[in-house]
Specification:
Beta-Lactamase; 5 helices; elongated
């Protein structure tokens, strides 16, 4: 009788374990895919705006004509609005509608250098504790005038969605594991 019971246990485990692992794999894949979708979509407005501003600057626009510096300054630690910064080749701000703590924060020179006339550098930037920004940087060139267009916006709302997604995935994983345990226990009884 014990041999039959051990065979039933083993048979149940051989069925339940792979199914549980497969379901956990599906949940993990869905979580990663959705999280990346949230984050990558956070770049969409900046991609378009950076391309347009770089084209304007390459066509000879003045920085203050490309970025409206007279509007209310965007503070990404408090606002979800998109902002624009234009810097020269040395990283000196020539126009900006972004301001945090009284200054315009600019990413490190390496972030600027990683962009080119044909390639945007798209990163997550944290200029200060508690403020994360989806940032797009694109270089421009007009005659001898070169520089970078920087466009960004806060990731606060995206991070709220990512947190909700994490908890939904955690609840689902817990449910899958509990169902696996219940199925295994029921298989042992038969």
């Amino acid at each position: 009788m014990k041999s039959t019971s051990k065979n039933a246990q083993f048979s149940s485990l051989r069925v339940v374990a792979p199914l549980t692992l497969a379901l956990l794999g599906v949940v993990a894949f869905a979580y990663v895919a959705l999280q990346q979708n949230y984050r990558l979509n956070a770049n969409d407005p900046q991609i378009e705006i950076a391309s347009d501003l770089a084209a304007q600057m390459s066509a000879g626009s003045l920085p203050t004509d490309a970025v409206d510096t007279h509007m209310i300054k965007v503070d990404p630690s408090k606002s979800l609005a998109t902002f624009g910064i234009i810097v020269d080749n040395n990283g000196k701000v020539t126009a900006s509608n972004m301001e945090m703590d009284g200054t315009t924060a600019v990413p490190p020179k390496g972030v600027l250098n990683a962009s080119s006339l044909t390639h945007q550098n798209r990163i997550t930037w944290q200029p200060q504790t508690g403020t994360r920004i989806a940032l797009v940087v694109q270089a421009y060139k007009h005659d001898d005038n070169t520089g970078y267009v920087i466009v960004g916006r806060s990731l606060k709302e995206v991070e709220v969605r990512e947190d909700m997604l994490f908890w939904m995935a955690a609840v689902t994983v817990t449910g899958v594991v509990l169902l696996g345990i219940v199925a295994f226990m029921m298989g042992r009884r038969s």
